[in-house]
Structure formats: structure tokens, C-alpha cells
Design goal:
One of its GO terms (biological process) is skeletal muscle contraction. It is a single chain. With 168 residues, the chain is an all-alpha fold. The chain has a domain at 39-86. The protein has helices spanning 2-29, 40-86, 101-109, 128-134, 142-149, 151-167. It is elongated and about 135 Å long.
Length: 168
């Protein structure tokens, strides 16, 4: 309560200080009007001058107010964009969990799938002897092969050779 009382006193003093500062500023900026002893035409001229000054100040006030409204709208839009970029949810802190690879895959794929981490068991085995039997190598004179395949007869032989191994 003591702190609240002290804060209220300071707040009241601040309000009084602002009011005094405002009065001092206005007394410097605004000169008092001396309208006594002026003719009607002089009073009309004075009113026109004051009216022009009021219009200028009002235009400036309107421009500043429009800029302020534009800035507040822009700030709102940027805040919305920031919230959209952040997302709705906070990311939870990640913890280290020791799980085997089988358990992890079972958790991802579900209990329907049998998961085996033995990747070598699923590989196809190839024997070296089978590969050598599949490609028999004929050693011969290459010039005979070129002469035999030249012209239309060679193309026919190539076509027949392609059909014959599947037919046998």
C-alpha cells in the first residue's frame, strides 16, 4: 500500500508537470490577440489569416492521422504474418530415446509389417559360374565377321540370329 501511495503521488506530480509544460509551450508559440481598437476591415483580415492558419494546421493533422492509421494497419498485418510464419504450435523439446531400429520401423510401419534389419538376407545371391556360362566368348577372326555382315545378307543373318536363340 505504501508503494501504491508513492506511485499515485508521482503520477499526480507527472500530470501537473505535463500541464505546466503545455501552458509554457503554448505561451511561447501563441501570441495574444489584440483586437481592441481595430476597424471592421482589419478584424475581417485578421479572421481570414486565422482561418487560413487553422486550415493549414487541420490539413497537417489529417495527413498525420492518415499516416498513423496506415502504420497501425501495416503493423497489424505484419503481426499476423509473423504469427502465420511461426505456426500455431510450439515445438516440444526433443529428448534422446534409445530405441532399436526394428522397434523404430515397427512403430513407423505398424504391427502389420514384419520388419527385418538384416538387409543382406534380402539381397539376391549371384554365383560366378553362372555368369561365365551365360556369355560364351567366341574367339575368331573379326574380318570374317565384318565381311559376313556387310550388305543386306548380313542384316538378314543378324535378324535370323536374333530369332534363333529364343526358338531353340
Amino acid at each position: 500500500s505504501l508503494m501504491l501511495a508513492k506511485a499515485k503521488e508521482e503520477w499526480d506530480q507527472e500530470i501537473v508537470d505535463k500541464q505546466l509544460e503545455k501552458e509554457r509551450y503554448l505561451s511561447e508559440r501563441i501570441t495574444p490577440l489584440h483586437t481592441s481598437g481595430l476597424s471592421l476591415s482589419q478584424l475581417q483580415d485578421l479572421c481570414r489569416e486565422l482561418h487560413e492558419k487553422v486550415e493549414i494546421v487541420d490539413e497537417e493533422r489529417y495527413d498525420i492521422e492518415a499516416k498513423c492509421n496506415h502504420n497501425t494497419r501495416e503493423i497489424k498485418d505484419l503481426k499476423i504474418k509473423v504469427l502465420d510464419l511461426r505456426g500455431k504450435f510450439k515445438r516440444p523439446p526433443l529428448r534422446r530415446v534409445r530405441v532399436s531400429a526394428d522397434a523404430m520401423l515397427r512403430a513407423l510401419l505398424g504391427s502389420k509389417h514384419k520388419v527385418s534389419m538384416d538387409l543382406r538376407a534380402n539381397l539376391k545371391s549371384v554365383k560366378k559360374e553362372d555368369t561365365e556360362k551365360e556369355r560364351p566368348v567366341e574367339v575368331g577372326d573379326w574380318r570374317k565377321n565384318v565381311e559376313a555382315m556387310s550388305g543386306m545378307e548380313g542384316r538378314k543373318k543378324m535378324f535370323d540370329a536374333a530369332k534363333s536363340p529364343t526358338g531353340q
